[in-house]
Amino acid sequence: MALSAALLSAALSLAPGPEGRPKAPRPLPQNSLLPAKPLPLLPSLPPRNGACDGDFETFLREEQTRAATFLESEQTRVARIFEWEHDRALRFERLGEHANYWEDPRIHNFGNTGWRGWLHALAVPFSTFLIDKLAYGGVDARKQIHESELSAAGQTVVDLCSGVGFSCARAGKVTAVDTSPNMLAVSRLRRPDVHERVVANAEAFGEAGSFDVATLMFATHEMPGYARRRCIRNALRLARDKVLVADIWPGFRPNDMMLSGEPYVLDYLANMESDVEASFDPMQWTLTREDVVEQHVRMWKFERLSWGV
């Protein structure tokens, strides 16, 4: 989250204007600021002696006015960018369930589509590395789940909301599904061993019972409640044997920086457990919970009691 926010600030000079087109950085006005040290080739600067003191002070006041005007215009431009982004997010919210929630520009302060989606996809490997090292005490939660639950070489696995490929199993025949072509493009570079990549909605992808295992990792906190339940139910529909859902520990308390890039996380924290309970049939599945990283990452493991009942 912190990396995403930092990259957002660095990208402000290229942020789109109200027309939706990226703005080129504005050139500095001529004679806007004096150099830190006087240049030797400026004979026109008045010397500091009695008769010219007034002219020199006038010169400085004019330069200070030019600098203040320039800074004010830049502050106005940045404020306009933020206002445009805020209005865009509000318009998105008003669309409700009819909108594609994965296009919400507030997600990780970038969104998942367009040129901002490319920035997001390129930032994910760095932010994931930092989170694993700093927040999870060096534990790679995805790798730990892969080694304990997905080691069979011959199994077929569908990884829903796969992002750039961190959650794709290392063993078996893996199909990666995501709504963001940007994420899948970066995944292709990171994980060329993945069998297939599909741009599709995880809520409705695939045929029933077409995979041995379905995984859904670190995605449910990035979607509204209705989509969260649909994704879990679809994972259960796709899998013949097992479903693994991993995400933020429900007792976690996010800080303000995290909240700035996670528009759905508070709803997730409040309702994930009840959503999980409401998504499966206990006559067909068993559910076990495991905290992969204590007070940080929880896994919900569904194992089928019988197939076709």
UniProtKB/TrEMBL annotation:
Query: The Methyltransferase type domain covers which part of the protein?
Result: 162-241
What CDD domains does the record point to? AdoMet_MTases
**By its UniProt entry, which SUPFAM superfamilies does this protein fall under?**
S-adenosyl-L-methionine-dependent methyltransferases
Named from the GO MF annotations, one term is: S-adenosylmethionine-dependent methyltransferase activity
InterPro entries cross-referenced by the UniProt entry: Methyltransf_11, SAM-dependent_MTases_sf
Q: Does the keyword Signal apply?
A: yes
The signal peptide, as residue positions, is 1-20
**Mind listing the UniProt keywords for this protein, alphabetically?**
Signal
Any keyword Cell membrane?
no
This one is known as Methyltransferase type 11 domain-containing protein
Species annotation: Emiliania huxleyi (strain CCMP1516)
